[in-house]
Structures are given as C-alpha cells and as structure tokens.
Queue: 3 jobs
Job 1
Amino acid sequence: MQTELFDPSSEVVAAVKPAFKTQLLKWVGNKQRFAHEIASCFPEKYNDYHEPFMGSGAVLATLSPERGFASDKYKPLVEIFQCLKEDPERLIEWYSERWHIAQKLGKKEGYQKILDSFNSSANGADFLFLCRACYGGVVRFRKADGFMSTPVGAHNPVNPASFRKRALEWHERCKNIIFNCEDYKVAMSRAKSGDLVYCDPPYMHSQAILYGGQDFQLKELFEVIKNCKDRGVFVALSIDGTKKSGDVNCDLPIPKDLFEREIFVNCGPSMLRRFQMGGSTLESEVVSDRLLLTY
C-alpha cells in the first residue's frame, strides 16, 4: 500500500482497521486476508456505507459500519445475509442439516445431492453449504441452463460447531446493515453526499466465467461512479491490477480525472487460475488488485 494515503496533510484521512480473518463463505476473489488494508483506505469520517457488489462480504464485515446498506442482484446470496442478520440460529441450522447430509452420503455424493437440489430451485440454504464445499469458492454457472457447475472441493467443509461460531460473530459485525436484492445502479443511486460506496465488481481480466461476470459492463459502472462523485459521494473501487506476478498490468478503460488515487494491493496466488489449471501450484500467477479512490 502507498503511504500517501495516511498523509496527515491530506484532506481525507484514512483510519487504520484491524484485520478480521474469519470467513463466512468460501468465495473466489474473497478479500478476507487483506480487507483491513482496503478498509484502511476509506475516509475516517463518512455517513452511510454502501456495498453494491456484496459477494462474500469480507470488506463489509471487516469494516462493521455503524450504518450501512449491502446488496447483490443474486437472490440466494442475499437470502444468506438477510438470514444472518435476522435469524442466525436458522442460518446455522441450514448449514448443519446439509453438512450432515454430506457426512451421511459421503462428501462427493452429499455435495451432488445438495447441488441438484439447488439447481432445481435456487435458494440460500443450499447455496450456503455449496459456497463452503465447492472447489475454491469458485461459484460458476453454465450459460446454457444457468445451473451451478462447480465440482466439490478437495477440502472438508467446516463442522457445524465451527460454522456456528463464525455465524454468530458475523451476525454481530453485520447487525447495522440493511441487505437488499437489487442491481448496483439502484443501490448506488441511494448514496448521498458524504456517504461511502465500496465497489467490488466482477473483474474484467479474470472473472468472466463466474457468477455476475457474464453481462457486467465496466464502462457503465464508471458512469454511475461519476454520478456519485458529482453528488459528493466517496467511492472506492477494487478492480483488476496486475497478473503474472506483476509482469502484466491489466489494461482498463479508466476515465481520466474520475479517480484521485490508485493503490495496488498484493492478493497472492490466483485461486481462479489454480481452478482453471487443475490445481497446479501457481508461483508465477500472483496477482494484485487495483484500488481506485475518487477522493
């Protein structure tokens, strides 16, 4: 991270955030390990917090804002977080029931049974377990029929006792958040002057095959960010940075003068590339995220 973010002469001062390492969902592109670095780049003072591309919620939970809105266009994902806030014991029951199915039938067979149930009728309860049990958190849907197609992971999903501890901790950290199922354009239109919006959309150079990536247009997001900036809203955007261990800089159509600062955050080896290459060790596939700030 670049130290000028913490320059005391800067008009907007960043507040250092402690790391929060406990994942609720396994999710490719999950920023849990370095969410505190991203959150430390946010203004020290702002009004409401908005996260319109919720995903795993890693930055949201790390920040644990006093008041905020988080959203996603995918209903089963939003169902998980709504249940987390409103009835965490029910969420824990969702997970426990499916974990025991996998234990009874065997990891692969149990996963397939839950995957079939989900593909016949998409729902948050099945999706919760699938996110924790699928390969590397790679949530991928086939274009032909919309079915989730990710195979079971080699790891063993956490047991219900461990998940319970995670869920209750996340419940406490997300208690001040309103979760909505809506398009990011609707969510960002709600932000007012002095609010903070953090965007973590599908990445153009790496995530086209994943949930949410097929139809996403970065140029349209840039237009919405400009409208927010013009209204006095602080916007932070995570997007493609570098790949091939820094040898390749991801070219993006970033509008001139839209962002005031650019930071690169080291993300480590690419889990998506590992999935695509059959689990190979990827020393040369270290990637960095680009964090763009309008302030």
Note: The chain has two domains: 3-73+182-293, 82-164.
Job 2
Amino acid sequence: MCYPTALSGGWHATARVHCGARQRGSVAGGDAGQHPEKIPRIGTLWPTGNEQEAAIFLGGLRQGLHDLGYVEGKNIELLNRFANEHYDRFEPLATELVEANVSVIVAGVGFAALAAKRATTTIPVVFAVAGDPVSSHLVDSLARPGRNLTGISIMFTELTGKYLELLKDCLHSLSSVVLLYNPNSLAAQSVVSDAQSASRALNIGLSLVEARAPEELQRAFLAIAQRQPDAVLIGIDPMLQNERKQIAELAVSHRLPTIGFAPDMAQAGLLMSYGPELFEIWRRAAAYVDKILKGAKPGDLPVERPTKFRLALNMRTAHAIGVTIPPSLLARADEVIE
C-alpha cells in the first residue's frame, strides 16, 4: 500500500471539471429572474454543537468564500445548523435547509451528506467526508459523481498503516495498540478493518475500545488502561476530533502515547498527529460552492482528495508521559510543539 507523505503538495482531482448549465435550486429563491435582489444562501450541517466548536471547519469555509470574493451579508448568506454530536438530528436539519430554499448545502460529515441526499435531489450538496463517498453511496464515482453531490474525500482510513508506522518509529518496542473508535461513525467499519489489516502486516497486537459519545470517553480510557497497551490510535470520527482536549488529558493521566488524524489533535495535547489540514480542506470546499453558484453541475465536478499531509509532535506531552521522541522522527515533523 502506498501512503502520501508530508512532502507531497497541492490538490488533485480525478478528472477535468466540466461546468454545465445552472440546475434548479442552485440559486437562492429558485428563480434569479424573479428575485434578483436575493443573495445566495448556503446551508451548512456540522456535527458540533456551535460555531466555536466548528471553528476550524467553518473558518476554512468562510476564508475560502472570502478569497473568492464573497462577503457575508453582502453577496452571500450562511445558514449554519449544528447536530451537537447527535447524528439523528441531521435529517430534520437538512429538511429545514431545503425548506429554506438554500442555494447549496455544505455537509460537514458523511451522515450529514446522506441526510442532505435524502432531503433533496435538486439542491447541490458539497461534502468533505472521511470515508469513501462511493462505498457510502454518496456519489457514483470520484471522477463523475453524478446526481447533486460532490466534494472532497479525505480517506483517512487509508492512512491507518502510516499511523502505526509512526508509532513504531517513535516507540521502538511497540507491540500492542488500542484503537479507540466510534462505532456510530459512517467510517467505523473501514477504520476497524484497515487497523486490523495494518496491525497484522506490522506484527502489532490490536484491541478495540468503543466510545459513542463524549461522556463515554472516561470509561473508555479506564478500559484502555486495563489492557496496558503501548499506545492508542484514535480512529477517524468528528466526535473524537471535537473531544481532542479531553482525550489528550485522559491519555496523559494514564501515561499513554497517542496518535490522531488531524494536526490540531497534537496541538490539543495528543503525542502525535498526522493528516491533512482540516482548515485547508474546508477552504477548498468553498471552491465547489463558487463553481456551483456560477452554473456548474455538482455531478460533473470530480471529487477531490488532499495530497498534502502534516506530521505534528507534542514535546510537552512527550515529557509528561516519559516518552523520548527519536531525533530521526523529530527531523521529519512539520510541526514540533514545545
């Protein structure tokens, strides 16, 4: 299996973008000729509880829109909706946005994208999802999504082997790892399957611990500590990313090395993190919104995948749990948090 490296850069799409005629529902109000005074309304669906918790995602989207000449309240409006980690809320929230006749729906996670897909077949949906949008039945293919959905596929699950390799580079005696994951996540099956395959290939013992909600994390870490693993791998999931500070505190209290899937997880106190910049992903998602507002059909816009990844190491956490990070790994880091 080949893994992207921190030295790779830029973004790529799987096919050339083709812009077609504007489809119904891609302009606020539905008929720009009858309502020329109306500005496009962009509905967003986030798994978090509020704007502050969604700052890295919403901030990237806003920055991307700003870079493309959009000013909130002047020539664009955002209608932000938050599920507060309760994924069953995406259905009514998506319906609410459809009834508000938004021009585009931006979906922050796979479940939000699926809810938007069920809510409308005409309003374009732009997503950034952690799993495979083809196997999740969001799109027909990456090159030609079809229907009214397109966006960015982060594909974190393909990096599972890389996470374990980084842990092994840091902890030379690594022989056992616990995967902490959310079984309710759309990518849960892929996360577990890839972790099992990668651990077998590297001859590392793997055990699984579940956490479905923030209030389950303390219990989860008690279960992890009882298994006495050499390290903990945090499975891709919006709830786990949002609870990165709590996870970091629990891991340090049990003196457990951890690796996460986004750079801000090391910044929050995990020992290591490796993955694409989430802010940049959402900044890039704004380009899809712009193309759709200018007439492109989402089904003709290829799904993109990030190719630039960052390795972040937290030296404060390393000192706190008694881990010495090898100089060779420090030299490879894109960010070292002192």
Note: Residues 278-293 form the longest helix (16 residues).
Job 3
Amino acid sequence: MLLLGASCTRSQDFDNQVGSIVEPYRFSIAGWEFKTLPSDVKEPSKGSNVEDESGTVIEYFSLAQRIRSLESEIEVSTSNGQGALPALKTKLDQLLDQKAALEATAERILRGQITEVLAEQGIFNPVDKYIKLKISFPPLFFKLEEPPNLLVVSPRDRIDRISDILLQPNTSLQEEVDIEARVDKLGVSSLVVPLGGLATYPSFVADDSGLKSAIDATTEEWVHQYLTFQPLGFLYLLDTTGISRNYDVATIDETVASMVSKEIGALVYKKYYSTQGSDDGQVANPELDFFNQEMREIRKAVDEYLAQGQIDQAEQFMEAKRQYLASRGYYIRKLNQAYFAFYGTYADSPTSISPIGSELKELRSKSASLKDFMAIASAITSRQALQAALKD
C-alpha cells in the first residue's frame, strides 16, 4: 500500500514532469504482483534432497550463460548488417525452452538451500529474539526473472537520491539514453541502472550474472524483507517510497543487506556447489584493486568539486575519468552524480566513501555471530545510533 500510495517530498511540478517522461516505460509492481501471485500463491516448500539436486541448478545457470552468449552473437551479427542467422535463432529458442523447463525446480532447490543455511546460523524471523519460533519469515520466495530497470535522479550540486522510478526491463539502450537526456533538462542528474534483484514479494532475482551472484541477490532481497519488520527496514521503506527521505538510513539498510547476503551466500555456495565443479559465471579481475581505489578517489574529488559549487568542473572531471577507465578496460556507460548516488548507497562498495561501511564492518567483527549482528543492526535508526551501538 505504501508503494502504491506514497506522497513525495519534492515539488509536485517536478514529479509531474518526470512522470510524464517515464510514463510509457514505467514498471507497475501492482500489475506484476497480480499476474504472478495467482500462480504461486501457496507457500513454497523447501523441498527435499536440496544437496543432491544441486546439479539441476548448475545446469540452469549454465543454460543462462549460453543464452547470454548466443544473444550477444545474434546482436553482433544483426548490427553488422548480416541479420541473425536462422540457425542461431532456432538454437536460442531451444535453449530458452530448456531453461524455462528447469526454472521452477531451480527456484525450489535454491530456496531450500538458502533457508537451511539461514537456519544453521540461527536466523529465522524478525521476532525470534522475543519469541523463539524456528519458522522462517518472511518465507523465502523469489522468481528467477529479469528485474525492472531503475531510473535514479540526483541533484547536480550534491550526490543524493531524490527519486527512484522503476522502468520496464526491456527498455532499449536508446530509450534509456533518451529518458536520461529529457530528465537531465530539468536541471538534475539521472541514470537508468539495471538491478540484480528487487525486494518485491516474491522477489525478482536476475539469472544472467552467474550462480553465485544469484544466491547473493536472493539472500539480499530476503534480508531487505526481513528488515522491513524492524525499525531500520521500516524507515528505509519510508525512504524508498518518498514519504521520509533519509540517505543514512538507506545506506545502512543496503549495506547491512549486502554484508549479510555475501556472508550467507558464501556459506551456501561452499556447502552445495564448491565440490560440484560449478562455474559461477564470474571471472576474477587482477586489476580489481586498481578499479576500487580509482573509484574512491574519483568520488572524493567529485565531492570536493561540488562542495565548492564547481558543478561543471565536477561533471567534466567525471567524464574524463570515465574515458580513462574505459581505456583500462572498465566500461561505465555514464558516470555522474546519479551513478554515485545509487552505487554509493552500498557503503561496502568502491563507489562509496561513507564511513558507514567501515563502521558496520567493525560492528560485525565485534558481534558474536551473524545473527547477533542482524539483531543489533536491525534496530539502528540513524548514523548516531550506529556509532552508539559500536560504543556499547
């Protein structure tokens, strides 16, 4: 109800202008829920033999990787004026059918595996610290389906998420560029970003970035749902709906969910897939440390430019750095205030210079367990509360 009926703190005129631009591309959560829930209304069962069935999940994500490669091959062939070869299209249709046939089974197996690892860590539900119920809540429920895209809007004179609007997942690159150009004319900075997951119910989880990423994303969206029943998550819900914007709360919630999901995801992957010979679709990059350090330095410099009111210089600097990173093999389509406003929300990411990331990592290191960390973090409602929790 909050997602559908929230009011916004920005001017109604600005909202109306942005709304008119994105209206043809807007994604309806309500429409998707009404379409999806009738076929999945019963609570998903954990299933049995989730460990023995890991091979099915590996096969599913192998098909997803082959489909991604084939789609790229078809796109290159088409862009070169050759047209997509009929044989390639036929093969693509076959792979899509095979993947669709395994989708529900792969979801069930992953659901059981993640739920079991959460239980092993003593993590069941938001009220477990008051009432000892060994029941997982919210029930882990997700769909391996391409999530919608997200239009992120930030002011030009500072890095801040002032608007987030969901767009259809099938928007083309040219449509995204056009949307950004029209929104930017309103005097703001905008960016359309792809999402790896979305904490609707059931959650969206993308399957095109490999098995490990899907496990992490599935867990992360569940943690967001879990936190919604706690003070931190409820305040973040108010932030995402525009009722009460709070960038610190958003950063804490996103970072907690990211940290927990990576820890649980690593345990799930180690328990069920490390001995399966699975290729998680991720290639290690030996220059990752370079990229992380470079992004932090760019963010610091941009903040300094903006603090001095040098908006044009900040934007010119970001574009120059974007081109430099591309020359080193790191392609970022658009580097602007909205880019840092979105990715900077994850304080454990290289695009964030927020001290919240290091403070939460310190809190985790001082916590006796992951369960204790979640219990403490879920009650945090501000940066000051986080610092107080560290002192305590």
Note: The radius of gyration is 21 Å.
